[in-house]
Design goal:
- This protein has four helices and nine strands.
- The chain has one domain: Muramoyl-pentapeptide Carboxypeptidase, domain 2 (2-Layer Sandwich).
- It has a five-stranded mixed sheet with strand order 3-5-6-8-7, with helices on one face.
- Helix 2 crosses helix 4.
- It is globular, with a radius of gyration of 20 Å.
- It is α/β, with parallel strands linked by helices.
- Helices cover 27% and strands 16% of the residues.
- The structure holds zinc ion.
- The site of zinc ion (ZN) has 5 residues, from strand 6.
Length: 217
């Protein structure tokens, strides 16, 4: 709606219109840098039951290097809907969701690959990861009363048998915590993987590898 338009457009208005058109073209192109979630995507923010601790935006990750310019959590809409369902379910049990990683742009996947070129730890960017499709999350539980992260037996991005989903050589309470997280994720359609207790993806959603990167607020 252009309710304020008074007829002839001044050259400056035409210029800014052209500029906006160019901007919106780049906003939808493959290597775009965006402020807000593109169509079909949503951004998750800190809320009462969801907290962000995006590790690749800090040096507090297994590479000891900052991969993202800042921590933001984008996912395909279907994954956000499913995750909100998980959060509602776990809230009743006194848990919140602590997110370590969400959508990971392909350029960031290349950056990770350049630091650790080992497919056991990082997906080859030519093949891509579910994170590059916006349908995977790395997360744990936190106690809604104390705000503290729940003991899952290993830290995030610990590479060893203790992090495996089928590892039983762990304290009973840890096994119970992992079960609570895995069951809640599964009930919303997420699937886990064998080697990482923190990784879940909504594989039934068809989503191509994505390049776009977010801009820091
Ligand atoms: Zn992951």
């Amino acid at each position: 709606m252009h309710t304020c338009s008074t007829g002839k457009e001044k050259p400056i208005a035409l210029f800014s219109k052209t500029f906006l058109l160019i901007c919106s073209f780049f906003a939808t192109s493959a290597h775009a840098q965006i402020h807000t979630a593109p169509d079909g995507w949503k951004e998750l923010h800190n809320s009462e039951c969801i907290r962000l601790d995006i590790r690749y935006a800090t040096a507090h990750n297994f590479t000891k290097k900052k991969i993202y310019p800042c921590g933001r959590c984008f996912l395909k809409e279907e994954a956000v809907t499913a995750l909100n369902q998980v959060a509602r379910q776990l809230e009743q049990q006194g848990y919140g969701l602590l997110l370590f990683d969400c959508y990971r742009p392909l350029p960031a996947q290349w950056k990770l690959w350049e630091i650790v070129s080992d497919p056991r730890y990082v997906a080859d960017p030519r093949k891509g990861s579910m994170h590059n499709r916006g349908i995977a999350v790395d997360l744990t539980l936190y106690d809604l009363h104390t705000g503290k992260a729940i003991d899952m037996g290993t830290p995030y991005d610990f590479f060893g048998p203790q992090a495996h989903s089928n590892c039983t050589d762990l304290p009973e309470q840890v096994l119970q915590h992992r079960k609570i997280l895995a069951q809640a994720m599964k009930s919303a359609g997420f699937e886990g993987i064998a080697t990482e207790w923190w990784h879940f993806s909504l594989r039934q959603v068809q989503a191509p590898l994505a390049q776009w990167e977010w801009i820091c607020p």
